[in-house]
TrEMBL record, chain A:
Provenance organism: Pan paniscus (Pygmy chimpanzee)
Protein name, entry field: Cystatin LXN-type domain-containing protein
Keyword terms: Protease inhibitor, Repeat
Keyword Acetylation among record annotations: no
GO function terms (MF aspect): metalloendopeptidase inhibitor activity
Automatic annotation (TrEMBL), chain B:
Entry-linked Pfam families: Peptidase_M14, Propep_M14
Family that this chain belongs to: Belongs to the peptidase M14 family.
Signal sequence interval, chain numbering: 1-16
Single GO MF descriptor: metallocarboxypeptidase activity
InterPro entries according to UniProt: CARBOXYPEPT_ZN_1, CARBOXYPEPT_ZN_2, CPA_M14_CPD, M14A-like_propep, M14A_act_pep, Peptidase_M14
Protein name per the record: CPA4 isoform 1
Length: 250, 388
């Protein structure tokens, strides 16, 4: 269970409780300098220390957590322990996140996983007749799982772009999917997601366009109905956030 | 409605005759004139098909709702076709109500289904009252569920819990001794209009379905509508917002019905509100960071309850006051309860922590209900032993 250590001298509370930092992590892009990814999920077992530099400046959070594979069917055990520093600049989106993990999955295995996902996507029959993933009862057909995984990844970029100290997002449902044929073997698809924002409880529809090839950076373009202005973000100040190379709004 | 049917199948497996109600449907019939109304009324009153008016005929330009048992579906459809009557089948929101009725019928000495009011769209608000004692106004516990309609695990857990209470009475010492000292009131669907809407139109609908004059947006957040720092922080005055507090406190008839009932009763000791998701167990306040006078005791009880809950499947809950655990929220049910003398006021945010969120798969219903039950019992045991 979570335990919170607050450093002396002054007690400080994180305005949105202990959920804030892990949510930012959970929705942040994968922190590897290689361009492959695997989806990990932040475990609830974490400890959070809060350092408030200056109320006007923002909030720095140190989070220690362990990770497990996103897909619960693939039980390969914990991937490792991670330590992260998350910096929320007051009300600004795109928190800076510095993460180090012990014992990440090795590179070869990661590449294999990437190619497996790629092949699964390429093998999907078009046009995809998708209504919702998961369906209203929470069910995801195993054949649709790769679509969900990739959509989740793309959505996590979008969510990170919008995450602030006070705004935290979850992926509620994928409501449409369309895969495009490409000349260069990339995976190219458009989808619509419903994001759930915690503090306002709003459901935000976003259209996302995603292009991917294993080993290459993910290209994400998006338009959310409730668009946050892409103001100066926390990440650009610190200079050490891993920012996807191509990220833009429609 | 696989979700509901799944629960129903499991809940009902120990009781015979369940199959028949899980096929029941409500037909909404567009009647155009008095002649059509009287033909329909004749058929219903004849009792041949065991029909019932769900919504009685009033005037020609309003549709009539008829409850049709599954065995009569074909015959009734034929009748409608022969009369040239237009109809639509509305959703089976009655399954929970029927199950409540069955529980009361199966355990008449323990359970009674009580109507406490109606929703904006005139659906009944039913609670199950569990009581072993004579006499009005015994110390009581209020279990609230489904106030936010998209949080389906809440209604599901509630109806499972209802069945659990009656099944375990006189078998489980804990619930037996709890019921010896206190009554339990369970409201599984605190927002029936919203619930139907999530099944027919929009799975992620949260609020009530009341009209907002001057706005095209519908509904108010029933958990911002209570008279506890109403319209304070953490609520919105915009009718289009998911946390719109409504025009005034208790403006939502669904909320008012509960408030009136509890105030009239006057002897509630505990109020528990079931929501999803996030796996949190919280106590007042949501409307302010000020510490509740009983915060220490509530925190202790909540931690014990979370521990008991975790003992079933390892599901971890965080514990704390609403405002600093999740976010500020004014006009909430448990803040109202607490400020009105109901000391043991708790909110559960049930499974999960965001993987499926509101769309929790059906195979997690029973595990969630089972673990939550241990948490609820822990709280109720403490209440039992600490009357005030």
């Amino acid at each position: 269970s979570a335990s919170y250590r607050v450093p002396a001298p002054a007690p400080v509370f994180l305005p949105w409780g202990p959920m804030a930092a892990p949510q930012a992590l959970a929705s942040s892009p994968p922190h590897t300098k290689t361009n492959s990814f695997f989806i990990f999920r932040v475990q609830l077992k974490y400890s959070v220390s809060v350092f408030q530099i200056n109320p006007k400046e923002g909030c720095k959070v140190h989070v220690v957590f362990s990770t497990e594979r996103y897909n619960p069917e693939e039980r390969e055990g914990r991937l490792g322990k991670c330590s992260a520093r998350v910096f929320f600049k007051n009300q600004k989106p795109r928190p800076t996140i510095n993460v180090t993990c012990t014992r990440l999955i090795e590179k070869k295995k990661r590449q294999q996983e990437d190619y497996l996902l790629y092949k699964q996507m390429k093998q999907l029959k078009n046009p995809l007749e998708i209504v919702s993933i998961p369906d209203n009862h929470g069910h995801i057909d195993p054949s649709l799982r790769p679509i969900w995984d990739l959509a989740f990844l793309g959505s996590s970029y979008v969510m990170w772009e919008m995450t602030t100290q006070v705004s935290h997002y979850y992926l509620a449902q994928l409501t449409s999917v369309r895969q495009w044929k490409t000349n260069d073997d990339t995976i190219d698809f458009d989808y619509t997601v419903l994001l759930h924002e915690l503090s306002t409880q709003e459901i935000i529809p976003c259209r996302i366009h995603l292009v991917w090839y294993p080993g290459k950076p993910l290209k994400v373009k998006y338009h959310c109905q409730e668009l946050q202005t892409p103001e100066e973000a926390s990440g650009t100040e610190e200079g050490s956030a891993v920012v996807p190379t191509e990220l833009s709004n429609f | 409605m696989r979700w509901i049917l799944f629960i129903g199948a499991l809940i009902g497996s120990s009781i015979c005759g369940q199959e028949k109600f899980f096929g029941d449907q409500v037909f909404r019939i567009n009647v155009r004139n008095g002649d059509e109304i009287s033909k329909l009324s004749q058929l219903v009153n004849s009792n041949n098909l065991k029909l019932n008016f769900w919504k009685s005929p009033s005037s020609f330009n309003r549709p009539v709702d008829v409850l049709v048992p599954s065995v009569s579906l074909q015959a009734f459809k034929s009748f409608l076709r022969s009369q040239g009557l237009e109809y639509a089948v509305t959703i089976k929101d009655l399954q929970i109500y029927h199950e409540m009725d069955n529980i009361a019928a199966d355990f008449p000495d323990l359970a009674r289904r009580v109507k406490i009011g109606h929703s904006f769209e005139n659906r009944p608000m039913y609670v199950l009252k569990f009581s072993t004692g004579k006499g009005a106004r015994r110390p009581a516990v209020w279990l609230n569920a489904g106030i936010h309609s998209r949080e389906w695990i809440s209604q599901a857990t509630a109806i499972w819990t209802a069945r659990k209470i009656v099944s375990d009475y006189q078998r489980d010492p804990a619930i037996t001794s709890i019921l010896e000292k206190m009554d339990i009131f369970l409201l599984p669907v605190a927002n029936p209009d919203g619930y139907v809407y999530t099944q027919t139109q929009n799975r992620l609908w949260r609020k009530t379905r009341s009209r907002n004059p001057g706005s095209s947006c519908i509904g108010a957040d029933p958990n911002r509508n209570w008279n506890a720092s109403f319209a304070g922080k953490g609520a919105s005055d915009n009718p289009c917002s998911e946390v719109y507090h409504g025009p005034h406190a208790n403006s939502e008839v669904e909320v008012k019905s509960v408030v009136d009932f509890i105030q009239k009763h006057g002897n509630f000791k505990c109020f528990i509100d079931l929501h999803s998701y996030s796996q949190l167990l919280m106590y007042p306040y949501g409307y302010s960071v000020k510490k509740a006078p009983d915060a220490e005791e509530l925190d202790k009880v909540a931690r014990l309850a979370a521990k008991a809950l975790a003992s079933v499947s390892g599901t971890e809950y965080q514990v704390g006051p609403t405002c600093t655990t999740v976010y500020p929220a004014s006009g909430s049910s448990i803040d109202w309860a607490y400020d009105n003398g109901i000391k043991f006021a708790f909110t559960f945010e049930l499974r999960d922590t965001g993987t499926y969120g509101f769309l929790l798969p059906a195979n997690q219903i029973i595990p969630t209900a089972e673990e939550t039950w241990l948490g609820l019992k822990t709280i109720m045991e403490h209440v039992r032993d600490n009357f005030y």
